[in-house]
């Protein structure tokens, strides 16, 4: 007859010992999980360099525009600071010929748009059609949506008319217009000196208000724009006011295509 193994009774002490072991194991697992999660967060932060790891399709366009504008503004401020340092070092150079060239360069700064300017002038504001007009256009299928937004050629037409009217200085969205300034459309925004802007677009000009208003009224393109604006609610507001323009502080380096070697 086989001898039966005696099973020791389960005591309260045994139960407590097993409970302590289980609790210790769970605590260790929890610590490991928290450490792993922390490592993932740190890795994500390093990879994104403080940015958003989500795709552009799920990121708000307005937030992207504002972020890019802040980055560009910071870069332009740095360029302005470096330009001031270069000017300071240049003035420290002695020599009659150098001083004569510096005097010529300083005399050209104002007409080139590098110096601040203020005086009587006009302020023109262009805006897209209201949202309800756009919604109706989408529902009906007409007019075309690009008819209901402000384009780069609309801004350029206003700027050209103001130059023809004798403007001494012009800015768009407080960005000084110079001879190399380009206005570009990028989706629902307009890019100026590398910075994207959304409507309303504010154009300021220093000059004789009467002559500037007359030049705006004489522009055939602006007349066509105003016809569309009256029909679909686009904004075209003009007022005479005292205008203060900032000097251009960006780079003056010209970039152009070169033939391949």
TrEMBL record:
InterPro entries: DUF881. Keywords: Membrane, Transmembrane, Transmembrane helix. It comes from the Bacteria. The chain crosses the membrane at residues 26-46. It holds the Pfam family DUF881. One of its GO terms (cellular component) is plasma membrane. PANTHER family: CONSERVED MEMBRANE PROTEIN-RELATED, UPF0749 PROTEIN RV1825. Belongs to the UPF0749 family. This is DUF881 domain-containing protein. It comes from Nocardioides mangrovicus.
């Amino acid at each position: 007859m086989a001898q039966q193994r005696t099973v020791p009774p389960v005591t309260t002490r045994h139960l407590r010992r097993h409970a302590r072991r289980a609790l210790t194991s769970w605590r260790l697992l929890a610590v490991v999980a928290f450490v792993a999660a922390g490592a993932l967060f740190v890795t994500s932060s390093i990879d994104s360099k403080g940015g958003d790891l989500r795709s552009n399709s799920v990121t708000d366009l307005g937030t992207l525009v504002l972020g890019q504008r802040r980055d560009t503004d910071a870069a332009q401020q740095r360029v302005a600071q470096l330009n001031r340092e270069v000017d300071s070092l240049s003035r420290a150079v002695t020599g009659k010929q150098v001083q004569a060239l510096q005097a010529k360069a300083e005399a050209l700064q104002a007409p080139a748009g590098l110096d601040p300017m203020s005086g009587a002038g006009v302020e023109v504001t262009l805006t897209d059609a209201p949202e309800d007009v756009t919604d109706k256009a989408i529902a009906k299928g007409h007019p075309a949506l690009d008819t209901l937004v402000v384009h780069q050629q609309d801004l350029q037409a206003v700027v050209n008319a103001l130059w023809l009217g004798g403007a001494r200085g012009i800015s768009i969205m407080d960005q000084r217009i110079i001879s190399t300034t380009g206005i570009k459309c990028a989706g629902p925004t307009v890019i100026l000196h590398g910075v994207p802007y959304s409507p309303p677009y504010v154009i300021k000009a220093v000059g004789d208000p009467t002559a500037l208003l007359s030049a705006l009224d004489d522009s055939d393109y602006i007349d066509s724009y105003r016809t569309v604006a009256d029909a679909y609610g686009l904004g075209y507001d003009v007022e005479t006011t005292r205008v203060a323009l900032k000097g251009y502080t960006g780079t003056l380096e010209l970039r152009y295509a070169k033939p391949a070697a």
